Amino acid sequence: MRPDKQIICIKWGTAYPARYVNVLYAMCARNITGAFKLHCFTDDAAGIRPEIACHALPELGCQIPPDSPGKWRKQALWARELPGGVTGTVLFLDLDSAIVGNMDDYFTYGSSDDVITARNWARPLRRLGQTSVFRFKVGAHAYMLDNLRADPAGIAHKYQFEQHYVTHGIRNGIKFWPETWTKHFRLHCLPPLPLRYFLPPQLPRDCKIVTFPGGPNPEQIVKGHWWHDETTHTPWQHIRSAFREYGHAMHDGSRIGLMKDLKSYLRTPEWLVKHWQE
Q: Which of 62, 120, 129, 139 is the most exposed, fewest CB within 10 Å of its CB?
C-alpha cells in the first residue's frame, strides 16, 4: 500500500554523491511520524541505501539552451506519469536540504491539489516561488512540461530560472509554506559581517527545513569550509587570504570580488552537525 507521506528527490550528474540521498533519508526518518517513502530519480543508484526506492530519471524531452541558468532538469517531474509508478501527492526536496524539525505538516498543509513552494527569499518583495521544497500532485500539471517541450528556448529565455517558470506557469497560481517553516541558509542563518567571523550561523526559531540555494552546501559547512576550499582558516587568516588574492588579481589585471571573499567565512554550526548526518 502506498504511504500517504511520499518524498521525491532527483540526483543526476556528479554534483552530489549518494551520501546526500542517504542523509536525506535519515533526516526524514528522524522527523516524520509514521510510515513514509523516499523515491530517488537518478542516473546512478550506486551507494544509495536499500530503503530508498530508486527509479530512472524522467525524460525532459527537450533541449534547454546551454546559456540558461537554473536547474531545468527538474521540470521533467511535471510529466503525466513518473518512473516507478510514483503517483499521488508528493513532496520534493533538494538533496542539499537540511531537515531540522518535524515535517509532518508539509504533507497536510493546504489542499492536496495545491502546488506549494518555499518563498524566494532573495527577492522578498516579489511573489516568487523557490523549488527547493515543493509539493504537487503527480500528473496534475502535465501542461507545464508540454509547454516547455513546445518552446524550450523561448520559455528558458523568458523566465531564466525554472522556479520563475513554476511561479508564473502553474494555473491558479502557487501557494507558499508558512514563513517560519522553510528558511534560506545564507539569508536567515548567517550573521552579518563582521559578526560571522565570531558567531556561528543560527537556526531560525520554528524552522523545519533549511535550504542552501547558491551554496555553500551542508557537507562543506559541517567541515567549516565555504565553497570547495578545503582549508580551515582562523578569521584573521581568512581576511589576509582575501586581501592577498585581491592584490594578485589587481596586479594581473583581472577582476575579483573582494567583498564576496570577505563574506565567504563561517563557523561550523553545531545544529547542522547534529541534523545533517545518517
A: 139
| Cβ atoms of residues 211 and 189 within 8 Å | no
Closest by CA to 132, choosing from 12, 278, 43, 9, is 9
**What's the half-sphere exposure (Cβ side, CA atoms, 13 Å) at 200?**
14
CB 183 within 8 A of CB 122: no
**φ, ψ dihedrals at 157, nearest 5°:** -75, -35
Rounded CA-CA distance 265/272 in Å is 16
How many angstroms separate the CA atoms of 65 and 4, rounded? 37
The answer to whether the CB of 256 falls within 8 A of the CB of 249 is yes
* Pick from 177, 186, 163: nearest CA to 207: 177
pTM for the structure as a whole: 0.92
Per residue of the chain (278 residues), give pLDDT as tens.
567 899 999 999 999 999 999 999 999 999 999 999 999 999 999 999 999 999 999 999 999 998 888 889 999 999 999 999 999 999 999 999 999 999 999 999 999 999 999 999 888 778 899 999 999 999 999 999 999 999 999 999 999 999 999 999 999 999 999 999 999 999 999 999 899 999 999 999 999 999 999 889 999 999 887 765 566 677 767 787 777 776 555 545 455 577 788 888 899 999 999 999 99
The alpha-carbon radius of gyration of the chain (Å, integer) is 20
Overall CATH class of domain 6-177? alpha beta
Within the chain, all domains assigned CATH 3.90.550.10 are found at: 6-177
Residue 197 gets which letter from DSSP?
G
